Amino acid sequence: MLVRNLWLDVAPTQVLTLIAPPEEGGLPPGAPMPGYASSQVLESRIPRFSRGDIIYASSGWEDYSVIDGKGYWDATKVSPGVSPNLAVGALGITGMVAYFGVTEVAKPRPGETFVVSAAAGGVGSVAAQVAKVLGLRVIGIAGGKEKCEWLLTEAGVDGAIDHRGGNVASRLDELCPKGIDIFFDNVGGAVLDLALERLRPHGRIVLCGTTARYRQTTSAPGPLNYWQLIMVNGRMEGLLGRDYFDRFPEAIAALKGWLDSGQIKAKEDVVVGLENAPAALGRLLSGENLGKQLVKIADPSP
Amino acid sequence: MLVRNLWLDVAPTQVLTLIAPPEEGGLPPGAPMPGYASSQVLESRIPRFSRGDIIYASSGWEDYSVIDGKGYWDATKVSPGVSPNLAVGALGITGMVAYFGVTEVAKPRPGETFVVSAAAGGVGSVAAQVAKVLGLRVIGIAGGKEKCEWLLTEAGVDGAIDHRGGNVASRLDELCPKGIDIFFDNVGGAVLDLALERLRPHGRIVLCGTTARYRQTTSAPGPLNYWQLIMVNGRMEGLLGRDYFDRFPEAIAALKGWLDSGQIKAKEDVVVGLENAPAALGRLLSGENLGKQLVKIADPSP
């Protein structure tokens, strides 16, 4: 297919493509940066897609791409009524990971205490709100006052911890006096250890990302307190969205319903212009983004 | 109850009682070492026990103890036909942990590759054999030729790795060319990282013990490769036997059936005499024991 790329899905894991040597799957010099995008089909030799379709697919940081519809998961048509920005954000891989991480990996029970790191980021902001919809007590950890303010006033979480503004350990103790039932971790590093230390019996840790180590060239240490999993019969489980590919329609329907009713909000941090895509990735890595980091390239043709 | 202690259940975690300061649950100077034992009741004010009963209970390193039948789990009567040594070994906490770790935490499917560390120890030797009975391909990691020989000839595992005798990483690659489905970990440390690196999609790590860190006064590093759990949608789960207390009769019946039919063997490393209990604990820590480490104090009175 020849496609016009509309919105780029910028994700922290993309930095790994830049760091890894080509022989380990890294990007060879001169190649376009790969990534998911919502795109409009201009020409298609793939039977299930036709000219004019809006699709969500593995594409690249280009105005136009020639793609085969394959990738980490296959290209899908964006459902009618879903805007191309939502398709790469709250209703894209980001939203799928948040939805299945909370519902299937964490397996929450109403009233439990749910803590999420990078809570104002793409996955975190959806996970925090899904957890609220499901009746959990939600504490978000984020960097900076603006993010914490957004979490409290817009996302409606029960508590926010600014990891730049103070002692995360003592704030966790204050906000989770009985400990943590579920920790949804996008970051790793020191905060994961603090959560392990406070994990309640049968507590669960959803491993979604480890941004704390993406930029480290030397090996980052593992979680010192992992043995707490024995003490509390706890579970730490990794989450890759592709496991749930067949169930994406279910998750999209649920999330779209909550978005339409205003129960959850799709927070987006939009950078305009393909030439600004590297800066958008930089925003993610420095933690400047509030909500899902997107790059807008173009509007679809009618 | 006043009881005569018969057999002591010596477990690596007991060393933690010696290391911890009294304010953190450590043993105060002069106090008797606590521990599980099979004992004979001499006098009882607890209605469910009577003089002559053989029980399995939290007791201590003493000839005689006065106990209340409470503890990490409550005192139980040893079933008729179960010898007082089996009651503290393959049919005691050790056996329960092995049984439920394999059946309930690992949730194995026949044909999967199951690797166990400290495979010739108390829990490991039972776990390895239960896994074999359930149709798994079992690789045991143990220290020394004698243990590996026992694993191959007596326990009937499919492969043994002597961690004192060579490169564990390359031996794992040889014996698990497709990776590891289940790692039953009694040790932690470097071997846990090797297993994480080789974990297959939807692989499971049963965390049973972390003997590698029991004697370390400085904090031992956590598993560097924990993030592999994300890459393979893996699960690492802690195991405490007490969760399954209500189901001990089921496990005892299953294990006793396999012991009686010869499908599994209760390997015991017996030190005779209460005065040798400290040496027995020392054997565990230096890895000299082959099988469950026990101390025999006395035979029951008829």
Largest interface: A-B, 30 and 30 residues
Count the helices of chain A. How many? 11
Cα end-to-end separation of chain A: 19 Å
Number of discrete domains of chain A: 2
Question: What is the CATH level 1 assignment of the largest domain in chain A?
Answer: Alpha Beta
Low-confidence stretches of chain A: none
On the 0 to 100 scale, the average pLDDT of chain A is: 94
Largest sheet of chain A: 7 strands, mixed
**What is the general shape of chain A?**
globular
Q: Which structural category fits the helices and strands of chain A?
A: alpha/beta
Q: What oligomeric state is this? A: homodimer
For the secondary structure, the number of strands of chain A is 13
Classify the fold: give the CATH topology of the largest domain in chain A. Rossmann fold
The CATH fourth-level homologous superfamily of the largest domain in chain A: NAD(P)-binding Rossmann-like Domain
CATH architecture title of the largest domain in chain A = 3-Layer(aba) Sandwich
Helix fraction bin of chain A: 25-40%
Order of helices and strands of chain A: EHEEEEHHEHEHEHEHEHHEHEHE
What is the beta-strand fraction of chain A? Answer: 15-25%
